[in-house]
Amino acid sequence: MKDRVQGKGVNYMFTTKGYAAHSAHEPLKPFSFERREPTPTDVQIEILFCGVCHSDLHIARNEWGFTTYPCVPGHEIVGRVVKAGREVKKFKEGDRVAIGCMVDSCRTCPDCEQGLEQFCQGMILTYGSEDKHTGGVTYGGYSTSIVLDQDFVLRLPDKLDPAAAAPLLCAGITTYSPMRH
Ligand SMILES: [Zn+2]
Ligand SMILES: [Zn+2]
Fold first, then answer.
1. Which pTM does this prediction carry?
2. Which ligand is in closest contact with the Cα of 54?
């Protein structure tokens, strides 16, 4: 474990393995990178399954023109809580959980205040957004673990097959939302 000075405090980091795109024209390759140790409101999740969304391909190939490399895609994540910060109330070790396309938001804009974080202009995407904890970019679910605030973690019902549930986190909700409306 290494430590890294970040602002006034120190963020402890641990190494995670994943797959990253290093340019628009190469296949993904094994990639090791650092994630933060959970803060008091974070959970650390062992990733068990991750869907492959077509957006992952667009971004890996820089087809939308804003990719930062190396890029670890993946935003249809299913896993298990392995560590919970001391102020985490919503989850405990062993819980089955899921994560979609965002891992944080500004928390203060009118959309965030209404619980509509998906419209927040300051949303932190699961990968490729600025990561204020590490000073780098966020890395996604094509990896062995992820650390994020409890407010952006979803509970996965025991009845759902975890592998089949992963695509619900982007493809599923994208379809469900307009039908519901
Ligand atoms: Zn906001
Ligand atoms: Zn997607």
1. 0.91
2. 2
